[in-house]
Amino acid sequence: MKVDTEMERLLDEIPMLHHGDLLGRRDAAGDDGGGGGGFDVSCLIRELAEMGVVEGDDDDGMLSSPPGFFGGGGGGGLSPTSSLCFVGQDGGDQHGCRFLQQRLDDGKREVDFIFAGVARHAVELMVNPFGNYLMQKLLAVCDDEQRMAIVLTLTKDPFVLVRISLNVHGTRAVQKLIESLRTREEIQLVVEALRPGFLELIKDPNGNHVVQRCLQSFDANDNKPIFEAAAVHCLDIGMQCHGCCVLQRCIARSGGEQREKLVAAIASNGFELAQDAYGNYVVQYVIDLKVPTANASLTKQFQGRYIHLSMQKFSSNVVEKCLKVFKEADKATIILELLAVPHFEQLLQHPFANYVIYSAIQNSKGSLHSALTNAIRPHVELLRTSPYCKRIYSRALLKK
């Protein structure tokens, strides 16, 4: 009884992380506040070893279980508190977490004991380089009640789940959490906990995977807060490397009114997005949807600016897409604008605009096509020598 009382006292002395310490600041023991520096129970493990509750291996720092620890001998199985002893720092973390993961395969009794020992430390473990794997395995085998307890632990304080999702280790554990959710209540708790950080998550190299996992795992109704945030911040999100991918995924996973609002918001910012290294992909994605109102909005913004867009690296791709997808009347507007430029040969020699001219030849017909080829023929000698004109000259029609 004395040993059990002393062990409980030591366990209660393990520092609980609060929001100010959790993941949010660097310390001497961890490089990012979440890489294992905030959860050190190595001293506890040593004391427990001295008390005979666990055995320490002097050779490699790995912990071994005493007789009866998992149901053998006369010890009565793994206790709820002693399971925590295997989640220490450095080598103890690695071997201990692996040991506990293996024991999770031994049946519900072991799952219950391990859950009781580590569940209240879910936040710390999820951002631990080794503990996150233990949490992922636990989420895969725990029952509905246990999963809800973990969800409540992770969502009771604002921004905690967001900070975990931004962590390089935590993002994996949160994605596993999202995959494991079964009830509408669990999903709503998680989505609401992530809501304050949607913009930061979408643009983050770790956090964007959490948002994409929500889009993949939940239905359109549950993802409504994500769609709303994406529509409001579409310009900011679309002009960022991770954000442009999430934005396209949002369009693909949404439907009905939510999709209409999102596409309309992107189209209304089409001119700015088209000129961006990442935003141009979002605009091309919207053009390919062939939504009449969206393409009409883009046409209105682009009209009178096609020369400007054609002579830029990223927006020239958008003009090419317009020539492939837009209706014939809108294609004619683009081509007539190209033909009206005072020095047409400058477009032929331009490193980006020459691709637009090539697409115009491919996607025009009738009198408009003839007008285009007639404007090109006087510069045939230039086409032969300029490095940017060879593709245009290679067209069989222009060789005749």
UniProtKB/TrEMBL annotation:
Q: Where do the Pumilio repeat units fall?
A: 117-153, 193-228, 265-300, 301-337
Q: Does the keyword Repeat apply?
A: yes
The GO terms describing molecular function are: mRNA binding
GO cellular component terms listed in the entry, alphabetical order: cytoplasm
In terms of PROSITE patterns, this protein maps to: PUM, PUM_HD
Highest taxon of source: Eukaryota
Domain called PUM-HD: residue spans: 58-400
Where exactly are the transmembrane stretches of this chain?
none
Query: What keywords are annotated for this sequence in UniProt?
Result: Repeat, Translation regulation
Q: Among the record's GO biological process terms, what is one?
A: regulation of translation
- Give the SUPFAM superfamilies listed for this entry: ARM repeat (SSF48371)
Q: What does this protein do?
A: Sequence-specific RNA-binding protein that regulates translation and mRNA stability by binding the 3'-UTR of target mRNAs.
What name is this protein filed under?
A: PUM-HD domain-containing protein
